[in-house]
Every structure is written in C-alpha cells, then in structure tokens.
Amino acid sequence: AKNEMVTKGQILDAAEMYFAPDVKTIDFDGTVTDGKKTTTKKLQDFVGSIQKVNEITLHRAAANSDVTLSEFTFSFEMKDGSKIYWHEIIRSLWKNGQIIEEQYFKG
C-alpha cells in the first residue's frame, strides 16, 4: 500500500500513515533524521521544492518478515531550476504495521 501511494506522488500521506512516532531515516550521504515530526517536516520541505514530477516508477519490491525493499526511479524538476533523477532502493524496517527505520540507497 505504501509503494502505491508513493508511485501516485502521495509521499507525505504515506509518511503520515506509515511512519512510527520514533521513526529514523538514513539518507544516501549518511544523514540521520530522528522522529516522525522532524522526518515529516524534511519531506514537506522537499516536496514543496518540486516544480514538476516527471516520473515515479516502482520497479521491484520484496518483503521478508519485518523488512521491505523497494526499487524506485524518481525524476523531478525543482523550483530552483535543478533536476533530480534518483534510482533508489528504499529499505524499510517495520514493527506493528509502522515503519521504524527507513534507509535510502542509490540504485
């Protein structure tokens, strides 16, 4: 369900629905964000800087026990004129139906 929401561009809604209050996210560069409030604010700022979504494609997804892996391509045109193209693997750790940790890897 989360992957489908992300594919439709509902990134903030997915975070609100699935991130645990004490979620931790880890970016490509090792930057750690702790807590749902801080993580959601970071996502809001990012989504707010997008001018146009060119592509959000889910290529593959796998689940095993409390871990999910999702391979996405994201292509955005940003309000500052830059372009973002990410081929990304998202590893999510789940507990009681919520994501407690999410790490982003370059694909």
Distance between the termini: 22 Å
Q: How many individual helices?
A: 3
* Largest beta sheet: strand ordering: 2-1-6-5-4-3
- What would you call the structural class? alpha+beta
Q: Profile the largest sheet.
A: 6 strands, mixed
Helix content: 25-40%
What is the chain-wise order of helices and strands? Answer: HHEEHEEEE
Tell me the number of strands. Answer: 6
Spans with pLDDT under 50 lasting ≥5 residues?
none
- Broad shape: globular
Mean pLDDT: 96
Radius of gyration from the CA trace? 13 Å
How much of the sequence lies in strands comes to: over 45%
Overview of the structural elements:
The protein has 107 residues and is an alpha+beta fold. Helices cover 25% and strands 56% of the residues. Strand 3 (50-64) and strand 4 form a beta hairpin. The radius of gyration is 13 Å and the shape is globular. The chain starts with a helix and ends with a strand. The mean pLDDT is 96.
Brief sketch in words of this structure:
With 107 residues, the chain is of the alpha+beta class. Helix content is 25%, strand content 56%. A hairpin with a 2-residue loop joins strand 5 and strand 6.
Layout of strands and helices, then pairs:
Blueprint: H1 2-7, H2 11-18, E1 19-26, E2 32-34, H3 36-48, E3 50-64, E4 67-78, E5 83-95, E6 98-106
Parallel strand pairs: 1-6
Antiparallel strand pairs: 1-2, 3-4, 4-5, 5-6
Helix pairs in contact: 2-3
List the keywords.
56% strand; 107 residues; alpha+beta; 3 helices; six-stranded mixed sheet; 6 strands
